[in-house]
Amino acid sequence: MKQRQAPKGLVLAAASSNSGKTMLSLGLQRLLLREGMALAPAKCGPDYIDPAFHKAASHSVSINLDPWAMTADDIRARACEHVANADILFCEGVMGLFDGAAGGQGSSANLAKILALPVVLVLDVKGQAQTAAALVHGLQSYDPDVNVAGIILNRVGSMHHESLLREAIESLAIPILGAVRNNADLEMPSRHLGLVQANEYADLDRRIDAIADHIAPNVDLKVLCEIAGGIGQQKTEQEGPISQKAQQIPEGIGASYTRLPPLGRHIAIAKDAAFTFIYPHIVRDWQSEGAEISYFSPLADEAPHPHCDAIYLPGGYPELHLDALANAKVFKQAMRRAAEQKKCIFGECGGFMVLGKKIIAKNGKVENMLKLLPITTNFSNPKLNLGYRKITHQSDLPWPKDLLAHEFHYATIDWQGEASPLFEASNATGCALPAMGLQVGSVMGSFAHIIGPAHP
To answer: Across 24-175, where does the E strand assignment appear?
Structure first.
């Protein structure tokens, strides 16, 4: 079989959330772009917001690689396809290095092992000195198959602080790639589902340049690129852990992986500031299966394409645009007409809520929505619903019976009328949850964000 040199990659991870990982990810991607490198950015796990920032920083589409919802073979295939025309696969991790679902599945460490990639660890050292070395030692030794190959110290207070950190970590024989000074002005503001969305910044490019300029004198890009390893093929447990060195990838490894079938032959997708949570891999998979994709903006009071046979309302932040959605007469009329024509209409999370009767805003104001599903949702009494979901259905959706998804929202159900439930559901460990979603004829939706078909 013809062989080619494995493409390079790394995983930028952290000891915990809120360590400045995303800020450093954006700055490093912009610095690598300035060096003339072509990047293939990626995000570990189910995240819609960070990949949009990656695209702004790297000028390349960022994909999601989810070790809980995707098989190892699928992840390697998607990663190799994604990086085929780039110089480096730059993966940003999620939460802490080993944090994930049960058993750490879905964690940054899990992804690094699947791809046989080195980990560059972001360490928030504010308020600590020698203790940072103990933390690194613990992360380094917790799983010997995870290659913690470099460290970036973040939120360093002074030269003296840096010298204490370097002296303490020196004995661990892990290179320190940089020591970035604390600068609160560069922090990105957040909202309840994560960072404020990339499309909400009029000056995003300037902000990313400012981050890159701040870290440029304090990070060794040359060593960072030298640390990046080749994406390797996973061996079985019987064969033992992957070597991090000189991996070879067979030609065509990225040619085949599990796909979610298209919703229809021509899928009209809502896409604007209220409907932004769309996984690039799902849209690309639908197109690879021959589906035609068109976009429309409910906020601009646009109707879906008249020739579509399926309509997809993804998640996002409809609660920030309730007045515009309530008054989008053309959109509402077209959606009701599509339902009468029995076109497949599917809504996820925010899209599910818009398909409902009403949405109650955080301030208690009530706005009428599409009234295609008998449900009223409420933001005035927020309650976090978060986690992976295993779901099954018996509906007319053109998808396998068993699916994998995730849930992340603060809305609650204020009222629900008579309708058939859409999904039976359980959490990541298989514990049963209440039924999710509703269906009325060809109109269906739930709070679950679909990632893909279930796998053994």
So the answer is: 39-44, 63-65, 88-92, 119-124, 148-156
